[in-house]
């Protein structure tokens, strides 16, 4: 493993006063020591990003794109190595981890191409001697804060659009998965990105990092992905300096399987999105509403898929305790575990793929984000009221619908209060699509040209042609 005890600040890999230990969830064994940066080093990282900003912003778009493409190539070339690091510190299967690195490289490539499309606008003038233009400008220095569940893609989804827009970045990865982030930073250095454009600050004290970047007027935007609780705190802090903020927060995704759908195809797709990353995804289905006429066929296939799923361990003991609490609450209130249903025990933090039937809306699992491999199935008969049940959550990230009825597709998609609606499967996070939520799932979009626009200000320029 590379030397990981240092933080990337400007052109240098700097040592901090102390380090913290990263552990493998599969074994509980230590994996490495990482720089534990305090407020002083965070401030130096902001200095470096602020110094690098004018030249990065002024660099012609195609040159910025060349450097970003080189970084994408470096990342892709290291996919297996970085994937192995991710598997060790986060626990997901190697194929998922390697795939995530390759998808991260793809997001960077897409954003690189977008640099050449940072168009402004010409707007009709207010009178004959007036011209009006809108000029896209990068917001400035950006602080990024990322979670542990997708340790590489969460970073590249912030870095890609920020760098494309002409911003420089100080990034703080989750303290549970800093080794993947260090490996990403090494790829950017190898690609020749100018010093200070991307700075990486690892720390075991995230609130101190947050306080420094929120208080520094040079940081013009904070992009956060993580829990709704921390997101709320950052929203409060951002008021002080009126900072731009993007917050991608928790989710509680409903799945609606209508009577005209193919129950086997639906169950297969639900199993894929439910058991990916052992259910530790903000987009994971959390309430699976199945029409009672399809329930038997649907659950039989879901159980088959659950029993064949390849799952890594959960991130830590707390995660196992939360999943256990949700499942025990459901079982105590009358649900049945068709497969799984109790922690595997032994070494590590494993929990088996679980399917619960007989679940009702009042159970804990239907109200709190589980973040584990448990698929709760709720039956319904009334197609008219099920959408209201799906919407009855403070979250609004993603919803899944299964139907072949065109009218129903359009009506339901419009009624669902979620940032993303997937009908009959389909990928959720390709680089060209704006990923993000509404309500307590946050605001801001990552991906697509809307994602790049989140890092831009449109300056309104009015020119009089005074004669
Ligand atoms: P978390 O909020 O505990 O941590 C996320 C990041 O915030 C970490 O880097 C952490 O160090 C940092 N952090 C914690 N306290 C902070 C503070 N006071 N100030 C500044 N930074 C602070 O979340 P988590 O447990 O790592 O991630 C899981 C959550 O993330 C889930 O709720 C999940 O739904 C959500 N998530 C959302 C998306 C999305 O796009 N909407 C994607 C992935 C994960």
Instruction: Look at the structure and give the mean pLDDT.
Output: 96
Determine the N-to-C terminus distance.
Answer: 69 Å
Could you name the CATH topology of the largest domain? Aldehyde Dehydrogenase, Chain A, domain 1
Widest sheet: strand ordering: 14-15-16-13-12-18-19
Number of domains: 2
Protein structure class:
alpha/beta
Explain what this protein looks like in three dimensions.
The chain has 467 residues and is α/β, with parallel strands linked by helices. The chain folds into two domains: 264 residues, 3-Layer(aba) Sandwich (Aldehyde Dehydrogenase, Chain A, domain 1), CATH 3.40.605; 178 residues, Aldehyde Dehydrogenase, Chain A, domain 2. 39% of the residues lie in helices and 23% in strands. The protein is built from 14 helices and 22 strands. The strands form six sheets. A seven-stranded mixed β-sheet has the order 14-15-16-13-12-18-19, with helices on both faces. It has a six-stranded mixed β-sheet with strand order 9-8-7-10-11-21, with helices on both faces. 52% of the residues are buried. The site of nicotinamide-adenine-dinucleotide has 27 residues, from helix 7 and helix 8.
Top keywords for this entry?
alpha/beta, Aldehyde Dehydrogenase, Chain A, domain 2, 467 residues, 7-stranded mixed β-sheet, 2 domains, binds nicotinamide-adenine-dinucleotide
């Amino acid at each position: 493993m590379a030397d990981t005890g240092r933080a990337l600040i400007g052109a240098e890999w700097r040592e901090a006063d102390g380090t913290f230990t990263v552990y493998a969830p599969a074994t509980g064994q230590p994996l490495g020591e990482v720089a534990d940066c305090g407020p002083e080093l965070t401030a130096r990282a902001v200095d470096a990003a602020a110094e690098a900003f004018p030249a990065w912003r002024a660099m012609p778009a195609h040159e910025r794109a060349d450097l970003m493409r080189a970084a994408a190539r470096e990342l892709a070339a290291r996919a297996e190595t970085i994937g192995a690091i991710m598997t060790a510190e986060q626990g997901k299967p190697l194929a998922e981890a390697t795939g995530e690195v390759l998808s991260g490289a793809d997001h960077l490539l897409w954003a690189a191409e977008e640099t050449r499309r940072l168009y402004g606008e010409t707007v009709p003038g207010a009178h004959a001697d007036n011209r009006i233009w809108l000029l896209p400008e990068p917001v400035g220095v950006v602080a990024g804060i990322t979670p542990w569940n997708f340790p590489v893609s969460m970073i590249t989804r912030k870095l890609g659009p920020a760098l494309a827009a002409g911003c420089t970045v100080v990034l703080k990865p989750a303290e549970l998965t800093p080794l993947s982030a260090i490996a990403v930073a090494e790829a950017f250095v190898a690609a020749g990105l100018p010093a200070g454009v991307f700075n990486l600050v690892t720390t075991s004290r995230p609130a101190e990092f947050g306080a420094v970047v929120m208080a520094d007027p040079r940081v013009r935007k904070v992009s956060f992905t993580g829990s709704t609780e921390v997101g709320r705190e950052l929203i409060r802090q951002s008021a002080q300096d009126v900072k731009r903020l993007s917050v991608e927060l928790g989710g509680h995704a409903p799945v609606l399987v209508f009577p005209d759908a193919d129950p086997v195809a639906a169950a297969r797709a639900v199993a894929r999105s439910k058991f990916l990353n052992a259910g530790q995804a903000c987009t994971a289905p959390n309430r699976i509403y199945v029409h009672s006429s399809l329930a038997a066929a649907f659950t039989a296939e879901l159980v088959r898929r659950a029993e064949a799923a390849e799952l890594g361990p959960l991130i830590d003991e707390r995660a196992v305790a939360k999943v256990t609490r949700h499942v025990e609450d459901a079982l105590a209130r009358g649900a049945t575990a068709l497969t799984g249903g109790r922690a595997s025990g032994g070494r590590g933090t494993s929990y088996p793929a679980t399917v619960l039937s007989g679940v009702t809306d009042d159970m804990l699992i239907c109200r709190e984000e589980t973040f584990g491999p448990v698929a709760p199935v709720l039956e319904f008969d009334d197609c008219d009221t099920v959408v209201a049940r799906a919407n009855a959550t403070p979250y609004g990230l993603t919803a899944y619908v299964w139907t072949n009825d065109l009218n129903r597709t359009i009506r339901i998609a419009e009624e669902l209060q979620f940032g993303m609606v997937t009908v009959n499967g389909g990928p959720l996070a390709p680089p060209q699509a704006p990923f993000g939520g509404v309500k307590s799932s946050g605001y801001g979009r990552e991906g697509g040209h809307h994602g790049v626009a989140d890092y831009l200000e449109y300056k309104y320029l009015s020119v009089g042609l005074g004669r």
